[in-house]
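Hey, quick one: can you model this chain's 3D structure?
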Amino acid sequence: MFMCLLISTCINHFGMHELNFEILSDALISLSFRHLGILSFQEAAQYICNLPYKRNVFKDNVLCVFEDGGGTCSTKHALLKTLAIENNKNDLKLFVGIFRMNPFNTPQISSCLENYHLSYIPEAHCYLKYNHEILDFTGVSFLEKKFIVDLLDEFEIAPHQISDYKVSRHQNFLSNWLNEHREISYSMEEIWKIREECIKLLSKV
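Sure thing. Here's the predicted structure for all 205 residues.
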């Protein structure tokens, strides 16, 4: 996939020897990878990248990506961040960025935005950062160019914050966005439903 190729290039760009740590911990996530014969972060990241993009029912379960055979940007990157924590690699950071999701960086949602007469919708995207470089292991090619050019805000989170906390921050941003764009006539509930329609389209890729 395009995104996986982009990831490999990004990792090599700032030093595989620094990022590609061995999985030595006996903690839960580390053992889960090792049971699959995955012994390094590079192998783990590639494995996660290649899993399908799908929504997880129980996001608070740290093993949900393994159990469901796939995951979202949130669950995949929270899993890899937890793996890093277990192996004392605390300089790998977990971030949420809110970006303009539009037909250019996410073509799959073009028809949905057009139906609601929106040029974009602010979406929350989860990723990792290492030495200030963005690493995205979502594993789908909907970001045909780096979403960084459409980034509106970003904040660091812990793995356990990918559920309620992330949603709360995202909804607060959307509420403020609607207040600032009075020309958009949708309510908060309506804009969230539109956003959900967009995410369902991505789950089909």
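One thing worth noting: The longest helix spans residues 164-180.
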